[in-house]
Amino acid sequence: MTAVLLASLPIIGVAVGAILQYVFSRNAEDRKHLLVLRREAYADYLRAVVAVGFAKDPESALQARAALAQTKARIAIHGTQSAVGALARFEETDLDLKHPGARAAFVTLATCMRESNPVSPTDLRLVLLGAEPAEALPIKPLQQSGSPQ
Fold first, then answer.
1. Full-prediction pTM beyond 0.85?
2. What 8-state DSSP symbol labels residue 137?
3. 78-105 exposure pattern, b = at least 16 Cβ within 10 A, e = fewer
4. Where are the domains of the chain?
5. pLDDT tens digits for 83-120?
6. C-alpha distances out from residue 104 to 3, 6, 120, 127, 137, Å
7. 89 Cβ contact partners less than 8 Å away, ≥ 6 residues apart
8. Strand segments (E) across the chain
């Protein structure tokens, strides 16, 4: 009896190890897949917002809004709690980026989308929306070549 038990312990150990490795690797793959889906939804949302803003005719505006609705649904499913909340706050502003409240909500949303790799909200605002008119740096005129310095 003891000899059989001693002989079977390595086999049992290998089987348990294989099962645990499968479970843990499957869990890691599921998390990685969710992260990919989340990042794609966030990037597609930002693209859709741009498309809505640059729509030239009613047909392209309708297509852009349909894409926006699809990406919002994907964010609702795959997004983090903070990103979904920030998206809701942005939706409350009627999505008009001409208003300071909407701009702030949009930057907050983008900040939440970058939760795993944070960036300064100020930097995100400048990258996504540009400088506010009062913050814009004056553009220095170019010097003519050959002119005295």
1. no
2. P
3. bbeeebbebbebbeebebebeeeebbbb
4. 32-79, 81-131
5. 999 999 999 987 778 888 888 999 999 999 988 788 88
6. 72, 67, 13, 13, 21
7. 105, 108, 109
8. none
